[in-house]
Amino acid sequence: MATALDVLNVARMQIGFHEGAINENPYGDWYGIPNAPYCAMGVSWCFAQVGLSHLIAAQTPKGFSYNPAALPWFQRQGLVVNKMSMQMGDLVFYDWNSDGVVDHVEICEAASPGGFTTIGFNTGSPNDPTKEGCWRVHRNYLFVMAVVRPKYPVPLKPTTSVATSKKATAGVAAGATALTGGMLVTHPGTTNGTTVTSPSKTVFVAPPFPSSQTSFAVGQTNDAVWTVQKALEKAGLLPKVYDTGTMNIQTESALVKYEKKQGITVAKNTIPQIIYDELKGTL
Question: Phi and psi (nearest 5°) for 117?
Fold first, then answer.
């Protein structure tokens, strides 16, 4: 039987997703409202992956897409709780400009009197607020408008802050989406007899520029190499067969061609951050 932890594990596996141009994201595509603000649709998608959409069906059987319409539904269900009793799996609604209108929603991962941790979609990266996607963020209670506790089949005990936990180790629930090698890989399945539906769109999540240039040495396997290969493949400079995540001489040759097109000459086995960021930006 699915729990708040199952929903949270699905959300955890999305951390690092970075939206494309004009709010491009798979969650809105799944919900049926593409290229639009998707914080609520991302949350709804997570619940759908473990067969719990009915718990948050504030607007449609899939969940909700518009926070100002959803909160009154939760209020009518008697699901709003004191924000200081926030716990894992709760939905946190925010009013950023104190105008009485809900602006954003995230899923609580842990909470304490001093603050709380959430996972949010259409949320700015803690390291770069201009990069929006799915991220883990630490917040205070100042802008919290309401906290909603869905009626999970199996209630959880209140959690404590995850400030001392650097990595989530819990497994992924059935039908969830696993983040593997920088890819959002869908795993269709069933939960409690309910068919789980994943987004039809696969999104590559490119990592930041690596701290060591040895990451790009021939034979090295990592997501940064995979980012470069995917961008070169997209540019028509690298055959798909060499898009493996492991640096090879074919990728090096394609890089030389790309750098020449950009009017840049660099040392062998090195990729300047400006080139990496440029390639990453094309994905």
Answer: -120, 135
pLDDT by residue for the chain (283 residues), tens only, comes to 789 999 999 999 999 999 999 999 999 999 999 999 999 999 999 999 999 999 999 999 999 999 999 999 999 999 999 999 999 999 999 999 989 999 999 999 999 998 999 999 999 988 887 889 999 999 999 999 999 999 999 876 544 444 333 333 233 333 333 333 333 433 333 333 333 344 434 345 678 888 777 888 888 888 888 888 888 988 898 988 788 888 888 888 888 888 777 777 666 667 888 788 888 888 7
Q: How many residues are given for the chain?
A: 283
Residue 203 tokens read as: 């999104």
HSE-CB for 202 with a 13 A CA cutoff: 11
DSSP assignment letter at 208 = P
Q: How buried is 279 (Cβ within 10 angstroms: 0-12 exposed, 13-18 middle, 19+ buried)?
A: buried
Structure pTM? 0.58
Extract the tokens encoding 194: 């309910």
